[in-house]
Amino acid sequence: MNRRTMGKALMGLATGAAMLALGVGAADAQEKMKVGFVYVGPISDHGYSYQHDQGRLAVEKELGDKVTTTFVENVPEGADAERVIEQLASSGHKLIFTTSFGFMNPTLKVAQRHPDVKFEHATGYKRSANVATYSARFYEARTVIGQIAGQMTKSNIIGYIGSFPIPEVVSGINAFTIAMREVNPKAEVRVVWVNSWYDPGKEAEAAKALIDQGADVISLHTDSPAAIQVAQERGLWVFGQSSDMTRFGPKAHLTAIVDDWREYYVNRVKAALDGSWKSQDTWGGFKDHMLFLAPYNPALPADVVAAAEKTRTDIMEGKRHSFQGPVKDQSGKVVIAEGKQATDEQILKMDWYVEGVQGKVPK
Amino acid sequence: MSAELALLGPILAAMLAAATPLLFAALGELVVEKSGVLNLGVEGMMLVGAVCGFAVAVQTGSSTLGFVAGAAAGAGMAALFGVLTLLLLANQVATGLALTLFGVGLSALIGQGFVGIPIADVPELYIPGLTDLPVIGKALFGQDALVYLALAAVPAVHWFLYATRKGLILRAVGENHAAAHALGYKVIRIRFLAVLFGGAMSGMGGAFLSLDYTPMWAEGISSGRGWIALALVVFATWKPGRVLLGAWLFGGVTIAQLHVQGLGIDIPSQLLSMLPYLATVIVLVVISRDVARIRLNAPASLGKVFHPDA
C-alpha cells in the first residue's frame, strides 16, 4: 500500500532529525534487545500508523524489562526508507518492523547486508531467511459490516469510497457485498475511487456525491475521517476505517474496522528473544486478534448486533468464510463453485467484482 | 423529475462549495499579480492559514475567530515573502517556491497536536421556502457563509481594480513600476499591501478547508489547491469574473467525475481525476496562442524586481 506520499521533501528532513534522536535513545540499552519500528505516516494519524504504534507500546509494556524500542515516523516509501532501515540495523537493532507495503524492497536490501538482524515487513509478499511478512485479513471484518449495511439501508444503495483498485480493496468490496446481499438481495453497492489513501477534501466530496445519489450507508477504504463527518451532517450511517472514528460522528458511526498488531508484535519479539524466531508469512484475521470491530453504535437494533456478533464468531471459529461458494461475478458466471471457498491466492489477486456491485473495476 | 435531473441540484451545491477555496486564493493572487508581484507560495500560505485557523478554532471554540486567525496567518506568511522579495530584492519565483515548501513543513509542525481532533461544522444557511426550492434551492440559498463571502469578493475585487483610484494606481504599479515611481507612488508600499491581501485571502481559503469543508486538520490538507489557484489566475487572464468561471469549471468537473463513478458509468476513474487539470492545461494553451490577449491583460512588470534607484 502506498500510504502518504505527500511532502516527501520535508519528510526527508524530518527523517534526518529522527535519526539524530535515534543515537540519543540508544545510550541506555546495553543488555536489552533493541527493536525498531518504521512507520509511513505520523503516529498522530489516529489510523494506520497509530495502530502500529499501539503494537509497539504493547511490546514496551509487556517486555519492557527485556527490550527497548525505537520508532521512526513519517518515513517516505522509497530511497529514504532504505537509509532509515539501514540506520536502525547498523545501530544495534536486532528486530525491525517495517510497516508499509512500499518498504518491501528497501527492507530486503538492508536484510541482505545484515544477516544477523531479523526483519518483519507488513503487507508485502517477498520473504528471505531473515525477513518475515505479516498482514491482516481485513476482508473478514468487511463481511460483518456488509451484513450490518444490508440490514440498515432503507434506500438499498450503499456507497463505498475506495482508495486504489488493488486486490486488498477489491476483495474488501466483494466480501462486503456478498454478506450484504445475503441479508438484502435488493441492495447494491456503488463504488467511487478517489485514487488516494488520504485526501480529506476528496473523500468528503465522494461521500456527498454518493449520498446525493441515494446512498444511506457509507463504507470506506481510505484513511481520513472526512466521510464520517459528512454522514453525521446528513444524518446517515457510516463505517470507520483503520481505527475507531466515533468522535468524528457519534450518531453516524456504526462501527469501525480496527487493525490490531499488539498480540502479533509481542509474540514475535518474544520469539526473537528465545531464539524461536524464523521467517514466515502470517495472514491473520479475527481469530488471531489482528483486527477487531470498534464498539457498535447504540442506535443499532439488538437483533442486528446479535447477527453481526454471530457472523464474527462464526468467522473466528472457522464456521463461515467470507468467500463461500457459490460466488458469482457481475456477469453471473460462477467463479467460486458451490461448496468451495476462495483460496488465499484468489483473494490476494482479486480484480473482479461480485454480483451486486455497480460499475467495473478500473484497469 | 427524472433521477438525473434531481442530481443536478446537489451537484451544483457541491460545485459551489468545491470552488470556494480556489476562489479565495485565486482572487488574492490576482490582486498580487496585478501589482506586478508573482507569489508562488499560495499552497504554503493556504496550509498555514488552515492549521492556524483550526488551532484557534479549537482553542477558542469560535469558527469566526478561526477564520480571522487563518487570514492573519496567511498574511503573516505573505509578509515574510514581501520582506524577502520587495525589501531585500530576492528572486520572486525562488522565494515563492520556498514559501510553499516552508509552509508545508511549518503547518505540519504546528498541527502536530491537532491531528484527529473533531470540531463542530459551521452551520449552513437555511431560508424556509427558498432553500427548499427544487434544483437551485440548496445551491443558492443553503451554503455556508464563507461561500457567499467568496462570491461577494469577486465583484468587490473587480470594483476595486477597475472603478477606484487606488485600484488604478495598483494596476499602474503592476504595468510599469518605474513610471509609477516617477509619478511619486510608493511602489514598494503598494506592492507590500497587495501581497498581504493575497496572503490573507489564501489563508482564508485554507481556513475554509480545515474549518468548514472538512472540519479537521490533516497534513497537506490543501492537496494542491494552491497550485490550481495560481493556474486559475492565468486561465482567467487576470480578470476576476473569469476567475469565478474557472473556479466553477474546476469544482464542477471534480464533483461530476465522482458522480459519474457512483452511477457506474464506465470511464476510468484515473482519467476522470485528471480531467480538471487537463482542462486547465487546454485552456492555458488556447489562451496562450493569442499573444495579444495575454499582453493586453498580463501585468507588464509581473515578476520583475523593482529597485527605486534603478
Helix segment tally of chain B? 13
Task: Tell me what portion of residues of chain B adopts beta-strand conformation.
Answer: under 5%
- Estimate nothing, just give the exact number of structural domains of chain B: 1
Low-confidence stretches of chain B: none
Structural class of chain B: mainly alpha
Derived structural class of chain A? alpha/beta
Question: What is this entry, summarized?
Answer:
With 363 residues, chain A is α/β, with parallel strands linked by helices.
Looking at this protein, list some descriptive labels.
heterodimer; A: 363 residues; alpha/beta; Rossmann fold; 2 domains; 6-stranded parallel beta sheet; 6-stranded mixed beta sheet; 11 helices; 39% helix; B: 310 residues; mainly alpha; ABC transporter involved in vitamin B12 uptake, BtuC; 13 helices; 73% helix
Could you explain how this protein is built, in words?
The complex is a heterodimer of chains A (363) and B (310). By secondary structure, chain A is α/β, with parallel strands linked by helices. Chain A has helices at residues 8-25, 48-63, 79-90, 104-113, 138-152, 167-183, 200-212, 226-234, 262-274, 302-316, 344-348; strands at 33-38, 67-72, 93-98, 118-122, 131-136, 157-162, 188-193, 217-221, 237-242, 253-259, 281-284, 291-293, 327-328, 334-336. In chain A, strands 2-1-3-4-5-11 form a six-stranded parallel sheet, with helices on both faces. Chain B has helices at residues 3-34, 42-60, 63-87, 92-111, 137-141, 145-163, 165-175, 177-182, 187-213, 225-235, 240-262, 269-289, 291-297. Chain B has 13 helices and no strands. Chain B is mainly alpha-helical and 310 residues long. The mean pLDDT of chain B is 88. Chain B has a single domain (3-117, 135-297), classed as ABC transporter involved in vitamin B12 uptake, BtuC (Orthogonal Bundle). The chains are: A alpha/beta (363), B mainly alpha (310). The A-B interface holds A 6-7, 9-10, 13-14, 42, 44-46, 159, 165, 190-196, 198-206, 208-210, 212-213, 215, 224-226, 229, 233, 247-248, 358-360, 362-363 and B 7, 10-11, 14, 18, 101, 104-105, 108, 112-113, 115-116, 118, 121, 209, 213-216, 218-221, 223, 225, 254-255, 258-259, 261-266, 268-270, 273.
